Amino acid sequence: MQDPTSIEPTGIEPAGNESDRRPNILLITADQWRGDCLSSVGHACVKTPNVDALAGEGTLFRQHYAGAAPCSPARATLYTGLYQMNHRVCRNGSPLDARFDNLALAARRAGYDPTLFGYTDTAPDPRGMDAGDPHLTTYEGVLPGFTARQLLPEHERQWLSWLRSRGHAHAVSRDIHIPVGAQAGEITDAAPAYSRDETQTAFLAGEFIRWMSEQDVPWFAHVSFLRPHPPFSVPEPFNRMFGPSDGPAFARATNAQAEEASHPYLAYAMPRTGKGNFIHGATGPLSGWNGEDFSAIRAIYYGMIAEVDGQLGRIWQALKSAGAWENTLIVFTSDHAEMAGDHWTLGKGGFFDGSYHVPLVIRDPASGAAGGIVDDFTSAADIFPTLCEKLGIEAKNGLDGRSLMPFVNSGSEPGWRDAAFWEFDFRDIAAGEAERHFGLRSNQCNLAVIRDARFKYVHFTALPPLLFNLRDDPMELDNVAADPAYAATRLEYAEKLLSLRARHLDQTLAYTELTEKGPVTRRP
User: Fold this and answer.
1) Would I find rRNA processing among this entry's keywords (predicted)?
2) 10 Å Cβ neighbour count for 248?
3) Are 240 and 190 a contacting pair, CB within 8 Å?
4) Is 344 left (phi over 0), alpha (psi -120 to 50) or beta?
5) How far is CA 124 from the centre of its chain?
């Protein structure tokens, strides 16, 4: 079998203006990639040689967490450096307030033309827009500040058109993801009609490499890969690279019914998660799949990670061939993670670690760091302030995240946070289903999590809380919130969460004071 990570050099010639010493910036997101699915962190079967190679020349953050889920809220935190409690992108379709700064706008102030390959899932602020503007009919908008070189939203029409140009006349819809010879909705390790060189990932990587070869000044690019986001389907050789028995034990109760019975939110959400979100053409709820089905799906998911890793290797080689490798800061991460069968579910959302623990590798050739490993808790909110420090610019508003450059440069940062924090909002503004089910107002349909190495506390605004003793229960199966023996611990973590939220209330103007000499701004 051909080594899936062996990619031929592109032959791109070096280009650039020697008088401009600014670094190139390459931000890569691979949608729905779990933080434990890297061979560099010891996964039981997944091999990611190209991410590992990047980590070997940079810094690997082993306890990195998304700030929210699903895509739009998670990306809002990544792009703005703000927690959901401040950016208020609650669901896919929640507009991002135009008053907030973001990494693309900041990059423009630093003299770059930030260029997008893929998508950002940013719903625009409708205030000031015409009511008939078609941009108000989708959450798949572009983050303000980006120049879109190659859009690739979830309908994938640009990629389908490219496939047709390569002879796939039947590539007219997302049915292309149905494996050859399979029925719509069937779970199978058979491959789709397109090859490993014709995936969405390969298409987008090629578009970036072509654009990169045209640049003669320092550049800023965001390559936003859809994969390993579903539908779960991948070509040869990745489709059979892993078997259903591969991988660690699932973190889950005896059966799905036991999971649903463990908390009112799970009893609401689990039956409403549909198969069609994960296997193209499938119908019905996830409860129709058994343990063997989840194992087979997870094996495909692992193969999709290997496919993306192979294309990352292609990008690394292109940068080296172009003479850009030693002047390019690379940030590799994901917006959120994937349950992958843990707790008898798929996708993202809720409160389990499986939805929020994501990979992060930063390689800054200027730092001289190589092979650094960070076990402190870091957040997607830290990416924007990290880029601000690297580019020597300031955000136009207060940020919740902190720069990770001290870890990249020296391996540590005194006084760093001792816990991870994330939020999830399950309101349903358009249809009101969650509100009716629970008898709650929309602003009561949310939760917040604080999690350190010992305990994980989940606070629901209007539903019962959860507390997990992670040292004794790393799979999050035993909620001890109502156990009198843990009453003091529950109070301690509730107070920690309250203090965190108090520290991070919107600081847009809170660090400014009007004095006799005029406004004084002093940010920490």
Assistant:
1) no
2) 11
3) no
4) left
5) 20
Cβ(321)–Cβ(428) below 8 Å: no
The angle subtended at Cα 428 by Cα 116 and Cα 67, nearest 5°, is 45
CATH number for region 24-418: 3.40.720.10
* Catalytic pick among 37, 45, 71, 90: 71
> Quick one: tokens of 70?
């699903």
Residue 426 DSSP SS3: coil
Q: Indicate the pairing of strand 115-118 with strand 24-30.
A: unpaired
Alpha helices, H only, 213-345 = 256-261, 264-269, 291-321
Distance CA 27, CA 315 (A): 12
How far apart (Å, rounded) are the C-alpha atoms in residues 427 and 91?
8
Q: What is the DSSP string of 275-290?
A: GGGTSTT--SBGGG--
Question: What is the C-alpha to C-alpha distance for residues 222 and 122, in angstroms, rounded to an integer?
Answer: 14
Displacement of CA 141 from its chain's centroid (Å): 17
The overall pTM is greater than 0.90: yes
d(CA 146, CA 278): 30
Residue from 329, 419, 409, 335 nearest 376 by CA:
419
Maximum alpha-carbon separation in the chain: 77
Assigned token pair, 468: 């997990």
Q: Which two tokens stand for residue 142?
A: 């572009």
Which residue has better confidence, 90 or 128?
Answer: 90
CB 205 within 8 A of CB 217: no
Q: Please, are residues 462 and 126 in contact by the beta-carbon 8 Å criterion? A: no
| Gap between the Cα atoms of 503 and 424, Å rounded | 19
Query: Do 238 and 195 meet the contact criterion of CB atoms below 8 Å apart?
Result: no
pLDDT given at position 1: 37
Contact (CB, 8 A) for 323 and 16: yes
Q: Is 45 a catalytic residue?
A: no
Closest alpha carbon to 258 in 477, 3, 499 = 477
Phi/psi for 63 (5° steps) reads -125, 60
- Among left, alpha and beta (phi > 0; psi -120 to 50; other), residue 368 is left
> What are residue 24's phi and psi, to 5 degrees?
-75, 150
Higher pLDDT, residue 138 or 12 = 138
Indicate the domain borders of the chain. Answer: 24-418
Q: How many CB atoms lie within 10 A of CB 97?
A: 15
